[in-house]
Amino acid sequence: MVVLNKIYTKTGDAGETALGNGARVAKHAMRVNAYGTVDEVNATVGLARLHSEGDVDAALARIQNDLFDLGADLCRPDMEMDAEAEYPPLRMSDAQVIRLESEIDAMTAVLEPLRSFILPGGSALAAHLHLCRTVSRRAERLAVELATMESVNPAAVKYLNRLSDWFFCAGRMANSDGKDDVLWVPGANR
Question: Where does the Cobalamin adenosyltransferase-like domain start and stop, copy by copy (predicted)?
Fold first, then answer.
């Protein structure tokens, strides 16, 4: 259980922050950028939820919880030291990736195949889901870059990759199952 009885600690005033293993790093470190952007994705999901209800809202709530799991995973380097940790670190699992794949498959079965790229927009929910998609793609790029420098849980990268696809499909579903998608018209304004 997390207890936050003091919000500011002043320990970051010199431009450093603590990772999940207690190590101090610069606030602009790649690992911090990666999990910070995951937090940003979570905030965009919170905005999308203002326009969602029912099963979509429940799915977005699950995703928000997963994103906290993902942040906890990314803030903890040295996966090879997990067995020696005082408390087992929280790591993303393949089951979380498989759940997203299953949900994407269910949405895709309802949607008409695309014959054009779509523009972000349509309904308010769709617009917010496309924002979630683009921020999750940025988080993925940062996690992939981090993985070229340090160890990163492969399930974390897979999750981010599937998540942006999930947001894409969910955005189409929010546009009357794709019927109200805004289609790109190449060269329309020449």
Answer: 7-173
Nearest to 172 by CA among 94, 88, 106: 106
Q: For the segment 99-152, what is each residue's pLDDT rounded down to a tens digit?
A: 999 999 999 999 988 888 999 999 999 999 999 999 999 999 999 999 999 999
All residue ranges of the chain with pLDDT < 50 are none
Give DSSP secondary structure letters for 58-78: HHHHHHHHHHHHHHHHHT---
Q: Is the dihedral of CA 2, 7, 9, 12 positive or negative?
A: positive
Cα–Cα dist 145/152, whole Å: 10
**Residue 190: inside a domain, yes or no?**
no
Per the rule left: phi > 0, alpha: psi between -120 and 50, beta: everything else, 176 is: left
**What is the total count of domains within the chain?**
1
